[in-house]
């Protein structure tokens, strides 16, 4: 078992890195995200608090308040059957204390457009709630993230490269606003 966990939703083409230090959990629309939480808790009991990487599509591209399409998001993550949404983020409390950090490689996860604060398109609120419910530091960007696969193959290893937009850091205390983060503690490609 490794000290890093990768949640990879297979609707995001490619494969996560395969290393001894990584436990890969693959999800899709037929697999319950919340059904995997006992595995994460068991890993934390064996190896201590885990660093988690989330590789999935974000619900991005539309601003409901501005009624336009574009480089925007914040409406959640397409992860497993349930996704990560404002309406179910509290379920992540089941992992409270099991994770040290969560790095979200997903489009627009931390995006909050003008007029969307306090709505279901408030990505900063969603990522802050994820930090609060898990007691983990969450890192997520506010723009569409581009990635490639090794060799260009559809099943090659996923490489997100440099972050697009601002990378935000959400502390688990929930007391402070997110701050721009220069980088995450360990990028997935360095694990």
Summarize the structure.
This protein is an alpha/beta fold. The protein is built from two helices and 13 strands. It has one domain.
Write up this protein.
The protein is of the alpha/beta class. It has one domain. It is built from two helices and 13 strands. The strands form four sheets. It has a seven-stranded mixed β-sheet. A two-stranded antiparallel sheet has the order 4-7. It has a two-stranded antiparallel sheet with strand order 5-6.
Tally of discrete structural domains: 1
N-C termini distance: 14 Å
Tell me the β content.
25-35%
The helix-and-strand class reads alpha/beta
Largest sheet properties: 7 strands, mixed
Strand order, main sheet: write it out: 2-1-3-8-9-12-13
Low-confidence stretches: none
The whole-number mean of residue pLDDT values reads 90
Strand and helix order = EEHEEEEEEHEEEEE
Please state the overall shape, judged from the principal axes of the Cα atoms. Answer: globular
Task: Name some characteristics of this structure.
2 helices, 12% helix, alpha/beta, two-stranded antiparallel sheet, single chain, seven-stranded mixed β-sheet, 191 residues
Q: What's the structural blueprint in terms of helices and strands?
A:
Blueprint: E1 4-9, E2 22-27, H1 37-47, E3 50-55, E4 57-58, E5 62-63, E6 68-69, E7 77-78, E8 99-105, H2 123-134, E9 137-141, E10 148-149, E11 158-159, E12 167-170, E13 179-180
Parallel strand pairs: 1-2, 1-3, 3-8, 8-9
Antiparallel strand pairs: 4-7, 5-6, 9-12, 10-11, 12-13
């Amino acid at each position: 078992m490794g000290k890093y966990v990768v949640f990879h939703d297979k609707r995001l083409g490619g494969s996560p890195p395969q290393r001894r230090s990584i436990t890969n959990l693959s999800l899709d629309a037929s697999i319950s995200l919340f059904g995997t939480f006992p595995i994460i808790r068991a890993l934390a009991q064996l190896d201590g608090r885990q660093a988690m990487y989330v590789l999935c599509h974000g619900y991005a591209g539309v601003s409901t308040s501005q009624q336009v399409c574009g480089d925007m998001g914040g409406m959640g993550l397409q992860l497993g059957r349930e996704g990560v949404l404002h309406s179910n983020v509290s379920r992540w409390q089941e992992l409270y204390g099991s994770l040290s950090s969560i790095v979200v490689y997903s489009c627009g996860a931390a995006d909050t457009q003008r007029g969307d604060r306090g709505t279901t398109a408030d990505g900063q609120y969603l990522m802050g709630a994820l930090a609060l419910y898990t007691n983990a530091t969450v890192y997520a960007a506010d723009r569409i993230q581009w990635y490639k696969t090794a060799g260009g193959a559809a099943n090659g290893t996923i490489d997100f490269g440099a972050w697009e937009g601002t990378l935000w850091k959400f502390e688990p205390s929930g007391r402070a606003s997110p701050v721009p983060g220069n980088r995450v503690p360990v990028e997935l490609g360095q694990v």
